[in-house]
Amino acid sequence: MTPIVLAALSALIWGTADYSGGRAAQRAEALAVTVISQVLCLPLLALCVILLPGTPATADLAWGASAGLAGFVGIVLLYRALASGAMAVVAPVAAVTAAIVPIGVGLFTDSSPGPLALGGVALAVVAIGLVSLTPQAGRTAVSPRLIAMSLVAGVFFGLFFALLGQSSEEAGMWSLAAGRLTSVAVGVALLLGTRTPARLPRSVLGWAAVAGTLEIVANAFYLAAAVRGHLSVVAAVAALYPASTVLLALAIDRERLRPVQIAGLGLAATALVLATT
After folding, report:
1. Angle subtended by helix axes 144-164 and 174-194, to nearest 10
2. Assign residue 172 a region: left if phi > 0, alpha if psi is -120 to 50, beta otherwise?
3. What is the pLDDT of residue 154?
4. Residue (of 83, 58, 75, 267) closest to 183 by Cα position
5. What span, in angstroms and rounded, lies between the C-alpha atoms of 206 and 212?
6. How far is CA 251 from the centre of its chain?
């Protein structure tokens, strides 16, 4: 499969994972949900390493470990920001920031993609913001602290995209394994240090398991795309993950799409077409 197709698949699966993780975080502490979901996906990660083996260099493992740490911090901050109820503000700020960081890195580290592909990247950034806009329930105050938390979460997600994309194709899935083991180790240490209970109710555990499983599959698709394609284009396509979250909310929670979200989905489709040129 081409890098763009792999990145699009990662976006589709990531959005589903985020939906599941968000449902779990509504009923339990975000830190516990994040750590438990990542522990539950370790058997699948081992299978990925076996099916897609490689010979990693020390640099590949270092890039993967750094990406895993950045991704862990980003998802904990995102869950905590979403818990405020101001999803209409948190989601687009974090998603657009997550796209901009690797796009900038890719433009500096790789050869510049063609003008149509760059146009697709720009449209993807706009589409991310539009599809993330959801009705804000109630009158939740949007404080400078909340905006800052959303921005920082997006920066760490962007760093995850950029750092994991520095891995070599020869490393197989070992960079991803290094990242996940690092994030689990840090997460367990934080659970112990903050004395946060690690037990989740059975209903929450199911959502956490789905989130962790799908996240590792999305990570694997993204890694395969990033080592084969242009980072700025691949990251922009992968960062379209809010689109699938919105569609799931429409199908499962019976939410209604706003006109601005429909426009965002149209721009996302256009961005995918341009990115393949």
Report:
1. 150
2. left
3. 85
4. 75
5. 10
6. 21
Closest Cα to residue 227, out of 7, 55, 68? 7
* Share above pLDDT 70 across residues of the chain, in percent, rounded to a whole number: 80
Can you read off the two tokens belonging to residue 210? 């789905």
Helix (H, G, I), strand (E, B) or coil at 230: coil
Residues 6+ apart with CB under 8 A from 242: 15, 18, 91, 92, 95, 128, 131, 132
- Residue type at 187 in one-letter notation: G
Report the amino acid identity of residue 164. Answer: L
State how far the Cα of 230 lies from the Cα of 277, in Å rounded to an integer.
12
In the chain, domain spans: 3-275
Distance CA 8, CA 176 (A): 18
For residues 35 and 198, is the Cβ–Cβ distance under 8 A?
A: yes
Average pLDDT, integer, range 233-254: 74
Q: What is the pTM of this model?
A: 0.82
Q: How far, in Å, are 21, 147, 162, 260, 269 from residue 212 at the CA level?
A: 8, 26, 21, 30, 27
SS (H, E, C) 208-257: HHHHHHHHHHHHHHHHHHHCCCCHHHHHHHHCCCHHHHHHHHHHHCCCCC
Structure token digits, residue 77: 């901050």
Residue 196 is which amino acid? Answer: T
